[in-house]
């Protein structure tokens, strides 16, 4: 009985895949997978930062803390509800997107 009661807690503790994190946290409201909506498409972000995978922590910090000026005057709102680990997972996922087609 105790094992059965613990299973739902274990299942709830599993991290969401980054694409699901993006949907759950409203990233897709402003960002398309490829094209700019309000903010840049994820493929555009990946193209800009592709040559330096060490930038993932910086992208994660922009996700959590917000930014302005990187992609024009549009403000990237803070996402403080995301843990550092989730923000880093999202950043890695965004940076792994294939470049947009020419």
SS element count, helices: 6
SS-derived structural category: mainly alpha
Residue-averaged pLDDT:
87
Biggest β-sheet: count, sense, barrel? Answer: 2 strands, antiparallel
For this structure, what is the CATH class?
Mainly Alpha
Shape: globular
**What percentage of residues falls in helices of 4 or more residues?**
40-55%
The count of strands amounts to 2
Low-confidence stretches: none
Assembly form of the protein? single chain
Strands of the biggest beta sheet: in what spatial order? Answer: 1-2
CATH architecture descriptor text: Orthogonal Bundle
Give the end-to-end Cα distance, rounded to a whole number of Å: 58 Å
> Helices and strands, in N-to-C order?
HHHHHEEH
Structurally, the number of domains stands at 1
User: If you consult CATH, what is the topology?
Assistant: Cytochrome Bc1 Complex, Chain D, domain 2
| CATH 4th-level superfamily | Cytochrome c-like domain
Computed over alpha carbons, the radius of gyration is 16 Å
Q: DSSP strand (E) fraction?
A: 5-15%
List the helices and strands and how they pair.
Layout: H1 2-12, H2 18-24, H3 27-30, H4 42-49, H5 56-65, E1 67-69, E2 72-76, H6 84-95
Antiparallel strand pairs: 1-2
Helix pairs in contact: 2-6, 5-6
Structure description:
With 102 residues, the protein is mostly helical. It has one domain: Cytochrome Bc1 Complex, Chain D, domain 2, CATH 1.10.760. Helix content is 51%, strand content 8%. It has six helices and two strands. The protein has helices at residues 2-12, 18-24, 27-30, 42-49, 56-65, 84-95, and strands at residues 67-69, 72-76. A two-stranded antiparallel sheet has the order 1-2. A hairpin with a 2-residue loop joins strand 1 and strand 2. Helix 2 (18-24) crosses helix 6 (84-95) and helix 5 (56-65) crosses helix 6 (84-95). The longest helix has 12 residues, at 84-95. The protein is globular. The termini are far apart.
